[in-house]
Structure formats: C-alpha cells, structure tokens
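[scheduler] slot 2 assigned
[scheduler] job type: sequence-to-structure, two independent chains
[scheduler] chain ordering preserved from manifest
[runner] begin chain α
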Amino acid sequence: MPEGSPGRSKIKRKPRMDPAEVRRRTLSTAENLVLGEGLMASMDHISLEDIIVQAQVPRSAVHRMWPYKEDFFADLVLQLAERSEVSPSVYDPETLRVAVRALEDNWARLSTAEGRLSTLVEVCRQGSMRNFEANLERPSLRSYIVLSATGMSFEDDVRRALQESLAKSELSYLQGMAQFYESMFSILGRRMLPQFSGRAMGRAECSYLAEVCSSAIQGQVLRTVLTGGGVLPDLKAVTAPADPFNVGDRKPWNGPSLSFTSTFLAMTEAEPDFVHDPGESQEKINEIKTRIAGVSPESSP
C-alpha cells in the first residue's frame, strides 16, 4: 500500500453475539427479574429496554428476534411456566414430616380400626393445615397467579402451551404425593374406592386422589390471596375444638383441613381384613422418612 494512503481501521469490532446466546441472556434476565424482585409478569410492569441493558445484549438483535413486545412476553411466559417455583403446588418436606409425626404420635391406636380412622383424620388435619400455610408463605405464589392470568391473554397456541407446561410441572408433584399416600395406606389399612382408583384411569392407584386433594388446597390458597382483607371469613382462622368426623377427638380445624380431610375420607375406605403389623409399619415409616430426606425443598418429588 503506497505510503500515506488510508489504511484499514485498526479498531476491531466486537464479534456478533450468537442469536441463541441473545435469546438465553434476555429471557434469563427477565425471568430473574420477575421471580427475584416479585415484579408483575405483564407488559405494563417490565421494560424490555431495561432488560436489554441488564442482559448486555445488542438492542438490534433483540428487536430482530422479537419484533413486537408481545412476542417477547409470550416466550417469557412459556419459559417461566417451566420453573418449579411457579407450579400451582409446592413440595414442602415439612408437610410430610408433620404427617409422619402425627402418625407416630398415635402409634398405640393403630391396632384397631377405630384407632386407625382417628389417626388418619389427625394426619390429614395436621398435614393439610401445614401445607396450606406453606403455600401461602411462598414468595412465588403471586408469580403463579400473574403468570396464569397473563397467559390467558395470549393467542390460543401460547395459552395451550402454557397449560401443558404448567401441567407437566404439576405432574411430578402429584406423582410424589400419590406415592406418599400409598405408603400411608399400607400403615393405616386404607385403600382407594374402586370408582376413584387411578388404575381405572390408566394411572397410579392414588393419582386421582392426589389431584383432587391438591386442588382442594390450591383453590383455598388462591381464594385467600385474592380475596383477603377481612371482607370474607378468614380461611386461615382455626375453629374452636370440634369433632366433625366423629372419631372421638376434639381439635381445632380450618377451612382447608376440613375440605382436605372430607375429600380424603370420601374417596377411600378401610381395608376390611387389615391387621396392623408394627414391624412392617415401622419399615414403611423409615422408607417414607428416607424419601423425604432425599428430595430437596426446591424440587418436586
């Protein structure tokens, strides 16, 4: 090149960011924003421009990938739905521990059918009250509510994909609970009524029971969150001691524990020829405790 002629610029351009990396970083930043700071997952409360800055991605690449803000939020909603934090149910190891402790506290009663029934009622009462509280306390509950409401505003294909994703997330929780119920049945001498057996539906024995009981808690959790404030009766409030199932024990109840226990008793029955074996029952309890200890609170069983 002749001396004095203009040469090529020595300033190197930054390499173009891979589109897959742009997508990953942008959605991940928005996802953390929604879950970490508790922001509303709607287009009115999250700035795409702010997300671009925080994600450190090229603005032009983002707008090429998502020409309309609605397109970005559709993808964000679907990605959020895959997170266990926004599942409509929460796996709470302490709920299962509470149920097991209630069972152990009534160990001496398990030798008779009447004692097993009263123990079952107490296990249901304590476990459902604890699970209701655990659901109310989790920070991501409002994210689930907003996610569901936001998803309903999208086109049919996005709405269907959202429903499928939430269902898959819920399925692992329900499978774990169905397994827990089956283990408890073997100790308490209980079985599913044939009409409600999951096997009749091509599923695990207690799968339908797990779905119905989970829904009983979910519905009252959502109602408490959405309508709280003193206008309606407080579902969290406990009653004076009562014996609603005529088992000979007067204990305080609340709305979720009444509906959960009613559902559980209505869908199951006592094994007619069951004989309590303390040794086998203890082995079952040990197995349950091992399973509980082996699953982290952040994941579903």
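[runner] end chain α
[runner] begin chain β
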Amino acid sequence: MYTQPTRLIRLPVVIEYTGYGKSWIYHLISEGLLAAPVKISACAVALVEREIEEWILLTNSSPRKRR
C-alpha cells in the first residue's frame, strides 16, 4: 500500500487554504481546534498539510446555523 509522504506547510499556505488570518489560526491552535505546528528549526514552525486538509473537510461538513 502506497502512502503519500508527510508534507509540511508554512503559515502563509495555511492562511491561503483556510482563508483565516494569522491571529485566528493561532487562536484555533491554542483552543485545540486545529493541529499544533511542528518545530522545523530554532525559529520556524510548519503544519502538517494532511491535518489541515482533514480539519477543513470536517469544518465544512458540520451543519451551520442559518440566519
């Protein structure tokens, strides 16, 4: 069985994927609603692309309140 390698993406890509700003993304991470970033160097972090994609799918599949 073939599995794709884990791809790490930086914050600008996460912002593009989600449409959320930096502060809101870090708020979601601090609340445990979005996967925590992975430290890739002393000054840099990245997020696992697959985890972000799964979160987007789960968020979009949940029922929304209508006005």
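[runner] end chain β
[qc] chain β: The first strand starts at residue 8 and ends at 9.
[scheduler] slot 2 released
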